[in-house]
Amino acid sequence: MSQITSPAGDDPARRTPPGQVLTTKWPVLTYGRTPRFDPATWSFRCFGLVEREVSWTWPEFLALARAEVTCDIHCVTRWSRLDNRFEGVPVREILQRVPLKPAARYVLVHADPDYTTNLALDELADDDALLALRHDGRELTPDHGGPLRLVVPKLYFWKSAKWVRGFEFLDVNPPGFWELNGYHTHADPWTEERYSDQETNAMQKMRAEAARRLRAR
Question: What is the pTM of this model?
Fold first, then answer.
């Protein structure tokens, strides 16, 4: 199992983005109900701008190669937690098994019960992006996204969707659930990209056009 250490340096102050407060706790923040996991019906699906759709059952997913990522996480609600140890399937392990069409540049992440969030494909393909099964040596609890959550450490943690079930590959970058409800399209914690009113006019036009084009399909 490969290991990736994301934090740079040992100084907590240098590793804490502006406006954040450090905590050793892991707050539970969820909109709506926590879904029920049924391993007999669970699947992870990759679709959209692909040459062919690819999916995994729960036993098939558990058989994939794993990695361990040590990273800091930053929530838009202004808490940060350092040195989290996540174990799971690297996103790159998934991407190398999915034949993408050349036009695929963005990903709409789908999660239970009816959640989405948007990411650039390049950021989803980063070395430290993980489909996490375990945290700090224990299986992820349902409240924290178990059995499987996305972890993208470089962005605010709402982009690390809980209960993740699939990647939809797109040529546009439509807003997901929280992005439609006032959060920033990109979500870089180091530049405090928290809310949609901080987006440039070009970004707001892009998100509106992407949403329109997706609805028209």
Answer: 0.92
